[in-house]
Amino acid sequence: MGTALASALDPLNFDDLVARHQSMVFSIAYHVLQDRAAAEELAQDVFLQLYRHLDSLQSADHVTFWLRRVTSHRCIDRQRRRRFPFLSLDRIAEPAASSSPADPLLARRLRALVHELPAHSRMAVVLRYQEDLTPEEIARVLDRPVATVKSQLQRALKTLRARMLRVVGDRT
Amino acid sequence: MNPLDDELRRALRRVDAPEGFADRVRARIEATTAVARVTNSGWVKTAVALAATLAIMAGGTWYRAEEQRRAQGEEAKRQVLLSLNIAGNKLRAIEMKVNHREDR
């Protein structure tokens, strides 16, 4: 959606909110769950909940914060309730040649590695790199201490770096 | 900037929601609202109240019948014990008479 169109939308009209935020909500769910159908179902549930709580939300910023928070908590709850199939590195195709900066295979491999992180770390990584949130903002969204989020991010990056080195060689 | 940061930003960039997503959300909201409307409508409330009344009446009738059966059982038990008591007294009287004659 273009920025001009997004800014022309009514900040608290439900249909406009869906149009404005569907990509954000779906992407958070998709990057955490790595399953399009499950991500769509979860995103629909989030918007249904938004519809019921719309009266309690005061501003566009409040809606964005609320959506990130509810989506994140639902993702974590869903992973607690259901064990998703472990995505082994063996199931991911090897890159055909040396990787270019926007290598889709490398991105796919990296998403698979993110999927192997523990639930809370994965959530923090998605919010950090998809939504570009600071550790302080992530801590508010996830209701966790800032120090915990910082340490989860550091550990996650260390793990990802080590696994990437093992998988594609020393290019990161 | 760390190269891994760049790669992560690329790998985790936002993706479009599936085609027709907003329509499906709207459809689910309308379905949910329709169910709520039916649940809250006058005739459903009346039917629920009627069913609850009938259930309470049926429960009351069953309870009264059970109470009556229990009282009848208690009465029968009391009469059996009374009969046994009378028979016991008579047997004791006869025994005393027999013993008295044998003593003479």
Low-confidence segments of chain A, ≥5 residues, pLDDT <50? 1-8, 86-100
Q: How confident overall, as mean pLDDT of chain B? A: 88
Specify the biggest β-sheet of chain B. Answer: none
Order of helices and strands of chain A: HHHHHHHH
How many domains comprise the coordinates of chain B?
Answer: 1
- Shape estimate of chain A: globular
Averaged pLDDT of chain A, please? 84
**CATH architecture descriptor text of the largest domain in chain A:** Orthogonal Bundle
**Beta-strand content of chain A:** under 5%
**Annotation, overall tally of beta strands of chain B:** 0
CATH superfamily of the largest domain in chain A: RNA polymerase sigma factor, region 2, helix turn helix motif
Radius of gyration of chain A: 17 Å
Secondary structure tally: strands of chain A: 0
Outline of chain B, from the CA principal axes? elongated
Cα(first) to Cα(last) distance of chain B is 130 Å
In total, the number of domains of chain A comes to 2
Structural commentary:
- The complex is a heterodimer of chains A (about 170) and B (about 100).
- Chain A is mainly α and about 170 residues long.
- Chain A has 8 helices and no strands.
- Chain A has helices spanning about 5-10, 15-35, 35-55, 60-80, 105-115, 120-130, 135-140, 145-170.
- Chain A is globular and about 50 Å long.
- Mean pLDDT of chain A is about 85; it is low at about 1-10 and about 85-100.
- Chain B has about 100 residues and is mainly alpha-helical.
- Chain B has one domain (about 20-105).
- Chain B contains 3 helices and no strands.
- Chain B has helices at about 5-10, 20-40, 40-104.
- The relative contact order of chain B is 0.03.
- The mean pLDDT of chain B is about 90.
